Amino acid sequence: MTRLPILMYHNVSNVIDDSRGLTVFNKTLEEQFCYLVDAGYTTYHFSELENKITIEPKSVIITFDDVTENQLIYAVPLLQKYNLKATFFIPFGYIGNVDSWNSGNEKIMSIEQLKELDSRVELGLHSFEHNRYAALSEAEINADFSKCFKIIENSNLKVYNALAYPYGDYPKKEPNKSIFIKVLQKNNVKFGLRIGNRINKFPFKNPYEIMRIDIKGEDSMLKFKIKLLLGRLKLF
Q1: How many C-beta neighbours within 10 Å does residue 157 have?
Q2: Domain that holds residue 214
Q3: Between the CA atoms of 130, 134, 135 and 139, what dihedral angle is there, to the nearest 10 degrees?
Q4: Is the CB of residue 169 less than 8 Å from the CB of residue 127?
Q5: In a 10 Å sphere around its CB, with 0-12 CB exposed, 13-18 middle and 19+ buried, how is residue 83 labelled?
Q6: Is residue 236 situated within a structural domain?
Q7: Measured between alpha carbons, how far is 40 from 58 in angstroms, rounded to an integer?
Q8: What is the mean pLDDT of each run of 10 residues along the chain (236 residues)?
Q9: Exposed site from 89, 127, 176, 179, fewest CB < 10 Å?
Q10: In a domain? residue 74
Q11: Residue 101 included in any domain
Q12: At what angle do helices 26-38 and 221-230 cross, to 10 degrees?
């Protein structure tokens, strides 16, 4: 089995004073991407992993939640510059609008912008309403998926069925956990991503409990390297 860290990003800013929490300074992001290249990491799209049983010894997956316009402005050019792949997860009910589940200050990409993204970007699912799955009924989750798939079909948008759970939240106790997994399987979800902040082993033991490591705006380069190697340690 091979170690596979999955990095979770959100907003990117060109203002260093905004770089905290879920917002990363664009120069810091570039430094991190440059390090991945210099250290010899191979990046993957989730669609490439579906039928794989082996990956490169030094592998990483880069993910961005919410498809905000700031990712288009700052992250996409860096992916192009360093020839890195990433998966961007779409909250479908907010396309062309703002992140009103959050602060409402960040614009979400339009359908046209999503369709024009570079091939280094793979699109994935981030629900329709951006609600916590653990708080929804089976019928509500199925309805949420139906709304996502309707937009995908009507817009002729290419989306791979990897799902990032909003807030990293999903039912963790039985019987709701088993019901949730059956809903994911019914809707042809291939991979489900929580947070967890630990390093995965590939092939994945459970494709619906894949862990991501949150990269914060205040993370130093040393802390980034430690997260990449070990996940988020309690001392941090």
Answers
A1: 15
A2: 2-230
A3: 90
A4: no
A5: exposed
A6: no
A7: 7
A8: 96 94 97 98 97 95 98 98 98 97 93 97 98 97 98 98 97 96 98 96 97 97 95 69
A9: 179
A10: yes
A11: yes
A12: 50
Cα separation, 180 vs 166, whole angstroms: 14
**CATH code, 129:** 3.20.20.370
DSSP letter string, 117-137: --TTEEEEE--SS---GGGS-
What pLDDT, on the 0 to 100 scale, is given for residue 235?
Answer: 55
How many structural domains does the chain have?
1
The confidence score (pLDDT) of residue 104 equals 85
Rounded Cα–Cα distance for residues 50 and 191 (Å): 9
Closest to 188 (Cα-Cα) out of 162, 212, 165, 209: 162
Amino acid identity of 168?
A: G
| pTM of the complete model | 0.97
Q: DSSP label at 75?
A: I
For position 20, what pLDDT does the model report? 92
